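Database export, one record per block. Field names are fixed; values are copied verbatim from the stored entry.
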Amino acid sequence: MIPREILKKIRQIEIRTNRLVTETLAGQYHSVFKGQGMNFDEVREYQPGDDVRAIDWNVTARMNHPFIKKFVEERELTVMLIVDVSGSGLFGSREQSKRELAAEIASVLAFSAIRNNDKVGLLLFTDEVEQFIPPRKGRSHVLRVIREVLYFEPKRRGTDLAHALEFMGRVLPHKAIVVVVSDFISPAGSGALPPPIQTALRQANRRHDVVAVHVADRYEMELPALGRLVLEDAETGEVVEVNTAQAASRDAFALRQEKQYAEVARQFRSSGIDTIQLRTDEPYSAALGRFFENREKRRLRG
């Protein structure tokens, strides 16, 4: 039996995200995420303006006037949500943690998918694969996905995205839309994505359509002026003392974080991976809208 407060939280997310999907995103999702090919539908008479390359010459010869083959998109897709549930995801300086934001984004994309009759799967990871839910359709399945992103209790606290992508490659035999939701905080603390993760992302993107959702919190980007703080790394347990009273120290921290954030974005671009950058203190609807608009423009140019 699922506790009532958990059901209430899931229902609130469903209501919030469904409104956005209904009003805006379901149609954009359909436009930018295309099917795996074209299936033959029917033969019909040629009409002025039709592509002459579609003419069916066998039927045309038999009927003594031109006919064309009509094809429809093979629409059904699989959306695989790969969500980071490591210790750093529990951080949130406002009303929402990074993990709660991840659940809302997963909900938006999952409901957009099932509105278009696509399947949705879920892979939760830390420095190991914590849970895998095979792709399925339906509202009840999406509600389970939301619940697991929000409330699943991982065994470990670290992060290993390369291992998660390797696992995904084994369980997804066909091309899919792979959405990686993470803060992409490097275990080494360098700010850049380590080479094994870059390689794994490039390999995954060659086979699938990979989208990176980069989730951050305001106070990961800038320090509040609160004097001396004792901070513990949620993944490694390392404890450090930071003096936030000095403006120069805060400015240096913000500049360093901005450079690291930009470097991760550059690495995604160099790998041909689209990125959605989100913060827990900012509405995510505008960022999602820009992502879909940019993909649509690129599709039309192509």
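Remark 1: Residues 37-74 form one domain.
Remark 2: The mean pLDDT is 84.
End of record.
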